[in-house]
Amino acid sequence: MKKFLLYFLFLSAPFAVHAQFDKLKDSVVQFYGIVVTGDSLKGIPAVSIVVKGRNQGTYSNDQGVFSIVVLKGDQIEFTSIGYKPVLLNIPDTFHGNQYSIIQFMVNDAQYLPATIIKPRPTREQFERDFVNTPVPDDNIEIARQNTDAAKRRILARTLPASAGEAASRYLSQQATRYYYQGQAPPQNIFNPVAWADFIQAWKRGDFRNNN
Description:
- The chain has helices at about 1-25, 125-130, 140-145, 150-160, 165-180, 190-205; strands at about 30-35, 50, 55-60, 65-70, 75-80, 85-90, 100-105.
- By secondary structure, it is α+β, with helices and mostly antiparallel strands.
- The longest helix has 26 residues, at about 1-25.
- The chain has a four-stranded antiparallel beta sheet, with no helix packed on it. A three-stranded mixed beta sheet has the order 4-1-7.
């Protein structure tokens, strides 16, 4: 009896796997289409198309065309800046493995609070306020300040070395030690290049105590 059951399970296993594979294959859908505006029917580029509940998605191209592999019964969310989000359900009752749509998206109007513009009482007060108004730095000015030589020296003294820098320094020290193995290493006290670097560092204030 046991041999018969084992023989039956051995024969029925391929059919069960094949049936499960056919079921999974039937649930996979090639979902494609185009996303357009609801008023002018123009393609909307860079629309985010995400499958709800899974880390899966894509974007529409410059003409609003998209294509993505989903499963029957999935929920697809269309989002784009300036448009109301749309949630679409992929039906699980249709036959076939391709599903195409033309998705319309409606402009999302944003109403800002009212702004009242009032003039200054006098020209002198306007000039004073105009001169004293702080203007935030733009990106170029912020980048220039971040790459300033003095600021980079301060950061180099305070920030710890990264793993790559520490490994490079260790390997350099080991290479120097192996290079002078069996002999006395040279003394930088007689090296004019080392003295020039020391003088430049002294002028920059690298050895100054900031405490």
